[in-house]
Target: Endonuclease/exonuclease/phosphatase family protein
Amino acid sequence: MSLRRRTVEVLVAAGLLGTAFAPPAAAGEGPGRAVPLRVATYNIHAGAGMDNVFDLDRQAAELRSLDADVIGLQEVDAHWGARSEWRDLAAELAERLDMRVSFAPVYSLDPEAPGAPRREFGVAVLSRYRIVSAENHEITRLSTQVPDPVPAPAPGFGEVVVRVKGLPVHVYVTHLDYRADPSVRAAQVADTRRIMAEDRAPGRQRVRQVLLGDFNAAPSAPELAPLWRELTDAEPGGPTYPAQNPVERIDYVAVSKDSVRVRDAAVAETLASDHRPVVADLLLRR
Model:
């Protein structure tokens, strides 16, 4: 029995996934068939669980149990500070899961000691497939690192292109503004749509796009509405935040309507972060 099928059966038995979430065994076989891809998104809270205890072993185990081919991570520290033991979380998780990694920092600060690595915080993509290219895009942000911030372009919207069974897939990972005022999120959504539209430029072949992230807003939020013009929300069927007794769905898998189909999606129950991860089985159209 394959690891993927074992993982699914364990989650089904635990009541975390529906039986329809079984992997699409033959979906990618034969010419012209859709190609399966399992993706996940997880805000890892800088390695800390719902108990605020830093435990990367716990998070690595949870990520491994999802058996995803591509994972978008938010709130990722790289030598940031004592809260994550000055470690490079994206690189460590990639090594433990035997995956490739692309890290897109939102903040990159000078080290506290000469010669030490830069202190960075941002988002990351882990992938079982080869990362063909990577880019760290700027979107509108309201900095948490300066007094009296004003909205301004800043990095931290990561994009990678991975090749899945010969098909290029654009994967984006993002973390939208957390404040109650939706204005910055609205600007970030506009930036996101502009960047993703550039990859769908006229004359290009079919472009497969997957957006993963913590949007810090409910699916019905007005500031998210423009996203649903081009993207399909995977709709995993449950809230994701806070991890213990969640009441809001603010973590998303979204895919381009004309080139990717959502076969199934679910929220995995875990307290390894203050968010719950979302995992989705997709079919990539040829």
Summary: The chain has four helices and twelve strands. The helical segments are 3-13, 56-66, 89-97, 183-199. The chain has a mean pLDDT of 91.
